[in-house]
Amino acid sequence: MLPVTSPATPQRRYGGKSADERTAERRAKLLSAALDVIVAKGAEAITVTGVCTSAGLSERYFYESFSDRNALLDALFDEISRQGAQAVLAATALPDRDRRERARALVAGLADILLQDPRLGDMGLRSRTDEAVMRGRSATAHHIAAAIEEHADRFWAVRGADPARVRARAVGAIGGIADMFVAWQADSGLSQPQLIEEATDFFVAAGTGLAARR
């Protein structure tokens, strides 16, 4: 006989939202509140109590989504990593584009992620001594770079190149572009379109000569 399973109990809805939707909404509030605290006081000031106060939530809701403050910071960078990898895939999927056009699409996609919320730039400027933030920055750069490495031939001439060299260039390119964006927010001597062109030149240059040397 087939095992008999009882139907799933439907979630009760409050205010038109399911329990999962309310949990996701509280999680988003906590992540946004963490950015607010970082901008105001730096990442070193991130505490469970401080973030919950900023979000207007009780601490029990913090532990509904995060085990501690480092898990919260990791989640911030995980979201940036996810969006960054999506920007890589979107650029590689563009039809009838040359490598520079795809590189520019990638840079523009990264700009949409990192510049649409000025708090992300502030986090980069104000939190260079916080261990969890620095770990998150490094993990994010490597995650996005891994996506670039996987599709490197869509951006750079890499035939016959050592994969380790491609990986190193990808990590350097992402780290450099992120720093360009952060510096631009602090002192925007260029327009955003000009910034994107400069960052595209930087990205293209990062891949120069990969196929020529082993």
Largest sheet: none
Rg calc: 21 Å
The total strand number stands at 0
| Terminal-residue CA separation | 62 Å
Number of helices: 9
User: Which residues form runs of ≥5 with pLDDT under 50?
Assistant: 1-6
List the main descriptive attributes of the protein structure presented here.
214 residues, mainly alpha, 9 helices, 69% helix, disordered N terminus
Describe the structure.
The protein is mostly helical and 214 residues long. Helices cover 69% and strands 0% of the residues. It is elongated, with a radius of gyration of 21 Å. The termini are far apart.
Q: What's the quick description here?
A:
This protein is mainly α and 214 residues long. The chain has nine helices and no strands.
Layout of helices and strands, plus pairs?
Blueprint: H1 19-41, H2 48-55, H3 59-65, H4 69-92, H5 99-115, H6 118-126, H7 131-150, H8 163-186, H9 192-206
Helix pairs in contact: 1-2, 1-3, 1-6, 4-5, 4-7, 5-8, 5-9, 6-8, 7-8, 8-9
